[in-house]
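Researcher: Last one for today. Full complex below.
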Amino acid sequence: MVLQAVADPIRWAVLATLAQSPRCVCRLQDQIPIAGNLLSYHLKVLREAGLVTTSRRGRWVDYALAHDAPERMRAALPGAQVAVSA
Amino acid sequence: MVLQAVADPIRWAVLATLAQSPRCVCRLQDQIPIAGNLLSYHLKVLREAGLVTTSRRGRWVDYALAHDAPERMRAALPGAQVAVSA
DNA sequence: GAATTGAATCAGTCATATTTGAACCGTAAC
DNA sequence: GTTACGGTTCAAATATGACTGATTCAATTC
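Model: Here's the assembly. Have a good evening.
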């Protein structure tokens, strides 16, 4: 489910953007020029995958990469159970 | 394209199996109980993504994880450009 | 409290990927 | 050379996911 969420160009761009710093949806729209409702749809998929977190700030909703998102993405790759030092 | 290839349950299982050791298609079928032609289709997707390599051995075709597959999968994740020591 | 703004939701359409059944190809065995 | 086996390819059907337009909601501003 995590990989399914990441393996979409739009959602990948969202994650790459949020990996730099949290942003409100309106700023995400500046960097990812798609319809607002479509962006909202993809953000929902990322939310349900637990890869991003949200917090409302007035009229704006800030999105941030979940703290464990990088780890969970790496762990989701096949063969991720090896190559870990105790 | 790499992530698209990995983000499918069947292909994920194929990659996880091949991460242990190379196998011919018939042995893959033992571990992944699906129709032969369907498995062949997914193997083709993995081939085109460059994640697996093949070699014919008599009537059998052996599949193996591409040597750079783990690296390429990790590099395909968003935010993969950071945390690399020169 | 009416209008505006940022964002989310909904139903419907469209595109794409997966699955199926059949036919096909290369190699080996008879 | 014909049969059997491992695997692939093909066309058609199905399912899944992404996109659109319209509506709705919550918070703010006037």
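The first strand of chain B starts at residue 23 and ends at 24. Chain B has one domain: 2-74.
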